[in-house]
Amino acid sequence: MNSQYDADDHKLEIAYWYYKLNMTQAEIAKRLNFTRQRVNQIIGNLIDDGIVEIKINGLRENNVEMESAFEKYFKLGRVFIFDVDDAENQLDLFGQKAANAFTQLLSDNSIIGVSWGITLGAAVMKMQQRNLSNCKIVQMVGGLNSDTELAKPDEIARTLAKKLSCDYHLLYGPAVVDDPQAREVLMQDKVFAETFDLINRCDLAILGVGELSKSSTIYQQGFLSKERLEKLVAQGYVGDMAMQPFKKDGTWETENHVIGVSLETLRHIPRVAAVACGVNKAKAVLGAINTGCLDVLIIDKAIAQSISQELSLDIDELNKKSN
Amino acid sequence: MNSQYDADDHKLEIAYWYYKLNMTQAEIAKRLNFTRQRVNQIIGNLIDDGIVEIKINGLRENNVEMESAFEKYFKLGRVFIFDVDDAENQLDLFGQKAANAFTQLLSDNSIIGVSWGITLGAAVMKMQQRNLSNCKIVQMVGGLNSDTELAKPDEIARTLAKKLSCDYHLLYGPAVVDDPQAREVLMQDKVFAETFDLINRCDLAILGVGELSKSSTIYQQGFLSKERLEKLVAQGYVGDMAMQPFKKDGTWETENHVIGVSLETLRHIPRVAAVACGVNKAKAVLGAINTGCLDVLIIDKAIAQSISQELSLDIDELNKKSN
DNA sequence: CATTTTGTGTGACATATGTCATTTTACAGG
DNA sequence: CCTGTAAAATGACATATGTCACACAAAATG
C-alpha cells in the first residue's frame, strides 16, 4: 500500500515518536497505516541507518567496553576489569572490588571451592557479611605454611565460610609433596574421599592466578624449588592456578607433586572465577584463560591492557553487534 | 541484598549492556543478582539520570516536533505541518503532501464526507489511485458555481470517489440560499434525507478552512455578499469550514443560509480533518481548532509558526514527557 | 524502643516486541 | 497478458517489558 519511499520519509517521525514520545510500535503503525511488523522492522534499523544515536555518558571512565570485548573474544561468562591506580593500597583496593565481584557470583545452596593466594585472600577478607547458610565452602588445595596468614587455603576457606555464615570443609593434607609416590598414596586414602567428592561437585570455584618467576609468591614462599621453577620456565610454563602450572597456550602436563584440585577437574566445575592483579601477571593470566578452565575473570586494568595490546585487540570492533 | 550504592555503580554497565549489547533485562538481572523488575526500573530512569542520551539526526529539518507539540497542546489526534517554500507551486506542493496525509487517514469500509475549497480540491486531485471500493463518498455542502472546477464540492466528491474506486453520493441542492425560509423548507425535504443520514454517519470528513476577508475564496467567488461578510467580520468571525463561519474562540451561532453539514454535526463525526495553506489563514485555523470539531489538522509551516508565535508556544517544553 | 519510611524482593499479569511461515500485492520483463 | 520476484500484509507465537499488589528488611525518625 505504501512504497519504500514512504517508509524512508517516515523514519524520522517514527524515531521521534518511538524514542522521544514513547509511543508503542502498534500506535505508530496505526497512525501510518503500516503493519506493526513493518514499524518494528524500521525501528530495528534506525540505528544502523544513522538516524538514531544512543550515547552513554561516562563510558570511558569505566571499563565496561573492555570487559564485554574480553567476554566475547575469550568466550568467558563474565570479565571484571578494575582500576587500581593507587599503587600504595593496590591489594586493598583490588581486593575490595574483587569482593564486590564475588558477591555477584554467589548464590545460596552452592558448594564453593577455594584455592589460595594473597590476592584471593585479600578479596575474601573484604567481602561483606551475608547469610548464605546453605552454602558449603571446600578447600581445594592442601595446606601450606605461608607467611601471609590470609594467603593460606585453609584460612581463606574458613574466612569465607564466616562471611557467608556457612559450613566449610578443609583438605587436611599438604599442598605439595616432594615425592610423587607419596602423593599417589595420599590421594588414594579414604580421608580425602569426601573432600574430593565435594570438590568434584563444586558449583563455583574461586582461585588466584600465579605467575612463575623468582618474584612470584609460589617461589618466594618456597612452595616451589629453584630447580623445579627453572625447569618449568624452561618448558614454557607461565603461571599456575591452585598450584597447577600451565603454559602460555593453556596446555599442561599432569602435575604429580600437588595435592589438590586438578585443572582437569576445574574444567568441569560450572563456574570458575580467577582473580589476578598486577601487570607482571599478564602472561600468566593469558595462559590461564587459554586452559579453558575459566568462566569468570577478575583482573586489574594493567593486565587487561597488556593482554589487549599483545593480541592487538580492537575493543570497539569486538563490540559491534555481530553477536 | 544490594545497597543503593551498588545500583548507582551499576547504572553505566546496565546502560551499556542494554542499549549497546542488546542484552535483555532478565539477562542483566541475572548477572548482577538483581531482580528483573529492579533492572527495569533502573533502565527506565537512565535517560532522566542523564546517563543515556538518544539523539535523532535531522529532526530539525522536519516538523515532527512541532506537529507533536500541536497535537498535545490542542488535543488533536494528528497534526501535519508541511514546508511549502516554493511560492510558485505552493498549491501543487501542499496539495501533494496533504494528499499523502489523507492516505494515512483512509481505510476501507468507511463513509467519507467532503466539503469544498481550492486547497481541498488540490489535495484530492493529487491522491494516488487506490482500491477502497467499500468506501462511500458523500458531499457535505450543496453545489456552487465556482470558477475553479476542482473547488466545487460535487467535483471533489466525484474525483475522490474515482481515486478510491468507490461510490459517491451528491447533495443535490445549492450551497447557499438567500432566504432562510427557503433553506428551512429545502432541508426538510425528503430528497435530502438519505444524504444527511450519510453525513451523520460519516467516519471521516475532510474539509478546508477558509478565512473571512475580501481576498477569501468564499467572497471572491461571490458565495458571500459584501454585506454579510462585513457583518460577520464585525461580529468577530474569522473563518469558515464547510461554509459555516466561526469566531476566533471557536464559537458560532447557527447559520441559516447554508445547506450542508453543520458544525454541530461535524463535532460528532469521529475523524474530521481540515486542510489550510497560507499564512493569511492562520487566524481562521486557530478559530477552527477552537471549535472542537477537528481531529486532524493539515497545515503549512507558515500557519504553524504564526499560531505558535501568537500563543507563545514552547515546542520543546510541550514535548517533555509529562504525558 | 517502637514506628514510619524507603528500597527491594516476589509473584502475577497485561502489553509490547521480535520473529516466522504463509499469503497478497505491486511491479518489471518477457 | 502472463509470470517471476520483491515488498508488504497477515496470522500466530514465544519472549520481553512494564506494572501491580504485597511482603520484608534495613534505615531513619520520633
From TrEMBL, chains A, B:
Residues 61-307 form the Sugar-binding domain. Pfam families: HTH_24, Sugar-bind. InterPro entries: NagB/RpiA_transferase-like (IPR037171), SorC_transcr_regulators (IPR051054), Sugar-bd_dom_put (IPR007324), WH-like_DNA-bd_sf (IPR036388), WH_DNA-bd_sf (IPR036390). It comes from the Bacteria. The keyword Secreted does not apply. Keywords: DNA-binding, Transcription, Transcription regulation. Belongs to the SorC transcriptional regulatory family. This is Sugar-binding transcriptional regulator. The lineage of its organism: Bacteria, Bacillati, Bacillota, Clostridia, Eubacteriales.
